[in-house]
Specification:
435 residues; alpha+beta; Lipoxygenase-1; six-stranded antiparallel beta sheet; 14 strands; transmembrane
Length: 435
């Protein structure tokens, strides 16, 4: 069995039924396990694809939830039977009370009918009441499992709303009812009640009163004009010409209204700080500075460095947790090795080239997109079967490359933010020691 660290992913055999099991540590709070079958837009196609304690299976039984024992939930998935509208399955859980920091050690295991099982163990969490454990998502012609570990405060409701589900307030507590009733469809537009109709009928005289008041005001203004300036009503054309002559530019002077000028390349405030810069007005098409073989070589180098960065950040995360516990137990001043260790870890963590590899992933993603367009164009123009087979394989490979690069760029962005939080944590340890 292969254990995935947070943020990592691995292929999962999709033949037959995949058994996904979620176990919580013994003696801890009860977990309500849920599954969202979402499309490419990140939202469920309909409420039928939200699987939870009150709706234990998706249409056709392609996703089935069960709780065979206390502290253990199981989701049976048939990936090959999922409709094309379902892009990924999000496996999550919610708490009725407490927080996920009390459930460190909860473990998710995905066991396919054939192939190696994958696992993810929760090693860090905060005061969240809902948490996404993993995602089973399409990858080319197959499927992959990603360890997520992302928390949501507020329980089931904000988690469900994130994926397009409208959750009643009663459901947000996360406790299944003793006698569950079938979910009722949510009407798009409810019929107005008799009370609201009476309210609207009572509101109409108010609008009528405003209209009458406006007419009276206009009549009063007209009467005042007729009394004090009757010539205004007798020569409206002359007044209009006079107004145009007063406010229009003199043609003899050649004065005209200039069109708005584009901003200069750089505008600075008096203090010398750049306020804004002129943006390019022309679309710049993506380019690729490398040949196809170089793109794949750099992709493999990116993957290797991504794994090293991931492992390095996880190591720092464990060290920070260990040193925080030591700091709480200290009764006297901090030892020199403790301070030096935090400083050294912060220095090494700050030197990780995460931003550079993020830029590399974006450039390679542009290359993958251009490669896909070129291969699609060749496929449309080709008719020879042997050549077509080769182009199809290359196009699939390019799409898998683009998908992987998108995932890596997203994971690197997460690691960059996590690195910043870790640096703050090491600095807090040092400051707590009076340095």
């Amino acid at each position: 069995m292969k254990t995935l660290p947070k943020g990592a992913n691995a292929p999962l055999s999709s033949a037959g039924t995949v058994h996904i099991e979620l176990r919580r540590p013994p003696g801890r709070d009860t977990l309500d396990v849920v599954c969202f079958a979402v499309g490419a837009d990140g939202r469920i196609p309909s409420d039928d694809w939200f699987v939870f304690y009150n709706q234990l299976q998706a249409p056709g039984g392609v996703v089935v939830l069960s709780t065979p024992a206390a502290g253990r939930a199981e989701i049976r998935v048939q990936p090959e039977r999922l409709p094309a509208a379902v892009d990924r399955l999000v496996i999550a859980a919610a708490l009725s009370h407490g927080a996920f920091r009390d459930l460190i050690g909860a473990r998710l295991t995905a066991t396919p009918a054939t192939g190696e099982p994958l696992a993810f163990e929760l090693t860090e969490a905060g005061d969240e009441q809902a948490l996404i454990f993993a995602e089973l998502y399409r990858h080319g012609a197959g499927w992959k499992l990603r360890a997520v570990g992302q928390g949501f405060r507020g329980g089931l409701q904000p988690l469900a709303e994130h994926f397009g589900v409208a959750v009643a307030e009663e459901a947000s507590a996360g406790t299944p009812p003793s006698d569950p009733a079938p979910p009722m469809p949510i009407p798009l537009e409810s019929a107005p009640s008799p009370a609201s109709e009476r309210h609207r009928r009572r509101a109409r005289p108010g609008r009528l009163a405003w209209s009458l008041a406006l007419l009276i005001l206009l009549a009063t203004a007209t009467g005042a004009i007729r009394m004090f300036a009757p010539d205004w009503l007798e020569r409206p054309a002359e007044l209009w010409a006079e107004a145009r002559e007063r406010f229009s530019p003199d043609p003899s002077t050649g004065a005209t209204l200039d069109p708005p000028q584009p901003p200069p390349a750089t505008a600075e405030r008096d203090d010398g700080v750049t306020a804004w810069r002129r943006l390019p007005t022309l679309y710049q098409a993506p380019t690729c500075p490398w040949e196809d073989a170089q793109v794949f070589e750099r992709y493999h180098a990116l993957g290797d460095n991504y794994v090293r960065i991931l492992q390095r950040v996880e190591r720092s995360n464990k060290l920070l947790g260990k040193w925080r516990n030591e700091l709480r137990q200290m009764t006297s001043g901090c030892a020199a090795p403790f301070i030096d260790g935090n400083r050294q870890e912060a220095e090494q963590l700050g030197q990780l080239p995460i931003a550079a590899w993020m830029d590399e992933s974006i450039k390679l993603n542009n290359c993958a997109g251009l490669l896909i367009k070129r291969l699609d164009k060749e496929l449309n123009q080709e008719s020879r079967p042997i050549i077509l087979q080769r182009l199809v394989r290359e196009a699939d490979r390019a799409r898998n490359l683009e998908s992987d690069l998108t995932d890596i760029a997203r994971d690197l962005a997460y690691l960059r933010n996590k690195t910043a939080r870790l640096l703050d944590g090491f600095q807090e340890n040092i400051e707590a020691c009076g340095h």
